[in-house]
Amino acid sequence: MVDLKTQYLNMKEEIDQAILEVVESCAFINGPKVKEFQTNLEKYLGVNHVIPCANGTDALQIALMALDLKPDDEIIVPAFTYVATAEVIALLKLKPIMVDVRPDTFDITAEIIEKAITPNTKVIVPVHLFGQCCDMEGIMAVAKAHNLFVIEDNAQAIGADYTFKDGSTKKAGTIGDIGTTSFYPAKNLGAYGDGGAIFTNDEELGNKIRMIANHGQNRRYYHSMIGCNSRLDSIQAAVLNIKLKYLDNYAKRRNQVANFYDEALMGLSEIEIPKRNPNSNHVFHQYTLMVRNDKRDALKEYLSDRGIPTMIYYPVPLNKQKAFRQFVDENLEMPVTEMLCDSVLSLPIHTEMNEELLRFISNSVKSFFE
Ligand SMILES: *Cc1c(COP(=O)(O)O)cnc(C)c1O
Questions:
Q1: Cα distances (Å, whole numbers) of residue 296 to 210, 265, 310, 339
Q2: What is the pTM of this model?
C-alpha cells in the first residue's frame, strides 16, 4: 500500500545525516530537533501552538484531558473512523456518541451532528477521513450555537486546506479549538516510528496541553495536574523536519495518482470514484472506491491474486465493535456507515508510484468488471 523504502532511498543522505546528528548529540529526548520541528510545523500550519507527542492516539487523549470534562459528558464522533477516535473517549470515562456519515465524502456534517446533541454534549470530534476536510464551517457554526468544543482528528489530512465561504483558507486541524495528528510511518507525514502532535491557537489551552503531555508539570517535579508521559523523540523529529519540506510535494504526487485512477476507472458503472469536497483540497491519504452489488470482496481477492494489495478502511462500524457495546443503543441504526463498511476498498496510493504500476492496477480493476 505504501513504498517507504523507495521514498527513503530518494532522500537517504539527508535522513542519514539528520539521524546521525541526533545520535552524536545524544539529545534523544526534548533535544533541539524537537523544538525545530515544532517551530517548522507551527509555521507550515499557520497555528500558534504545536505540541509534539508520542502518537496520534495520545494526541486525541491529551486534547480531551485539556477540556475539563466530567464523567458521562458526551462526545460526538463518526461511527466510520479508526478506533482511536472513540477509544480515548471511553478510556477517560466520557461517553462516545456515534453518528452516521455522508455516503459520498464519508464525513460527518453539521446536520448529522445537530440531531445527536443533548444537554450533556460537550465536544464534537470531526475526522478528516482519507485526506480531505469535513465541512468545517457548518460544524463550527453548530459548535458555536451549542457552546461545544471541537477537536479535529487530523491524522489523515495533514496539509489539506479548507476554504471558507468568504474565500479565506485554513489548514486542516487548525480550525477547531484543538487539532490532533499522527506521524505513524504510513501517514502522509510519517516518521520512522511513532509520533503525533496537537495544535491550537489558544494560548491557555496550549500551555495546558503542554503540561498534560509532560506529567502535569511546567516546572520540573512540581505537578499541578494529572498528566501523562507523551513525547516525540528527537530521532523522529529529525526525520519529520526533512519530510515536512516535501509534504506539499507528496500531496501533489498523491493527487496525480488519484487523477490517474479517476480517469481510468470513471467509466465503470459498478464502482464510485472518490468524491471531492468542494470546500477542501484532498491530500489522498487513501484512494477509496465504493464497489456496488456486493462485489467488493471478490474484487479484493481478484486484485490480491494479481499481487495488488488493497485495504478495507474500515470493515466494521464502531457501533458494531464489541468493545463499544456498552455505549450503543441496540436499536441504533447507521445505514450509511454499514453500507460503507461493506463496499469500500482502498487502492495503493503513495508518493513513489510510476505510470506502469498505475496502469497495471487500473487495468486489473477494469478487467475484473469486464
Ligand atoms: C492513525 C489514526 C489515529 C491514531 O494515530 P496513532 O499514531 O496510530 O496513534 C487516529 N485517528 C485516525 C483517524 C487515524 O487514521
A1: 44, 15, 11, 11
A2: 0.97
